[in-house]
Amino acid sequence: MMSDKKIYFVALAVVVVLFFGSCIYGYTAFIEMPEATTDEIVVTFQSSTTELDTSAPALLSWQIFFNNLKVCLILFIGGMTFGAVTLFVLVSNGYVIGSISGVMLRGYDVSVFAATIVPHGIFEIAAILMAAALGLQTGRSLYLDAQGRDNAGTTCLWYGTRFLLVVVPLLIIAALVETFVTPEIAMMVLSDA
Questions:
Q1: Among candidates 135, 124, 30, 25, which has minimal Cα distance to 74?
Q2: In the structure, what pLDDT confidence band is assigned to residue 50 with cuts at 50, 70 and 90?
Q3: Whether the Cβ atoms of residue 59 and residue 142 lie closer than 8 Å to each other
Q4: Are 87 and 138 spatial neighbours (Cβ–Cβ below 8 Å)?
Q5: In whole angstroms, what is the distance from residue 180 CA to residue 162 CA?
Q6: CA-to-CA distance for 74 and 66, rounded, in angstroms?
Q7: Which has the least CB within 10 A, 54, 87, 148, 157?
Q8: What is the pLDDT of residues 76-113, one digit of tens each?
Q9: pTM for the model
Q10: Residue 44 class from Cβ within 10 Å (0-12 exposed, 13-18 middle, 19+ buried)?
């Protein structure tokens, strides 16, 4: 039987392939759409982000943090469906991120895209991938518990601890960077463009 560490890396590898594969699929699907259709999607996306309060950066950080925490909790807890919800939410989010990348790269050059995504995306995407890998491990643990080969309660408690100690801090860092650092970098790049 594989060690817990090897199982985690296998789960993480599956998650990385599915996430980035769905990002690529979302990107290619979006760039192949007619511009009129993509304009409608952009308007819909922009209207969905108007709920964020950009006048108070600290509040914006918390809104971003809680939105990302909600996604990561669904990825993690979705493991209780033997990974089905985890995989669906992971692939859906990858597709949306790929589509947004298509929007950004259609209207701006790569440097603007990188400046607006990479600073906080490093932490945010790492948290999403870790939460999804923990969700898949949760599903595996429940499956093994049903066969009498694991104690899912103890194992899932350990995974929950990892979630709290690794995923949550990454989400806090991502929200702070997205609120306070990314806009500054984006402005510097946009002023040079």
A1: 135
A2: low
A3: no
A4: no
A5: 27
A6: 12
A7: 148
A8: 999 999 999 999 999 999 998 998 888 778 777 788 88
A9: 0.87
A10: exposed
pLDDT at residue 4, rounded to an integer: 74
Q: State CA 153 to chain mean position distance.
A: 26
Q: Annotate the chain with three-state secondary structure.
A: CCCHHHHHHHHHHHHHHHHHHHHHHHHHHHHCCCHHHHHHHHHHHHHHCCCCCCCCHHHHHHHHHHHHHHHHHHHHHHHHHCCHHHHHHHHHHHHHHHHHHHHHHHHCCHHHHHHHHHHHHHHHHHHHHHHHHHHHHHHHHHHHHHCCCCCHHHHHHHHHHHHHHHHHHHHHHHHHHHHHHHHHHHHHHHHHC
Amino acid making up residue 20: F
57: Cβ–Cβ under 8 A, 6 or more apart, which residues? Answer: 179, 180
| Cβ partners under 8 Å of residue 66, min gap 6 | none
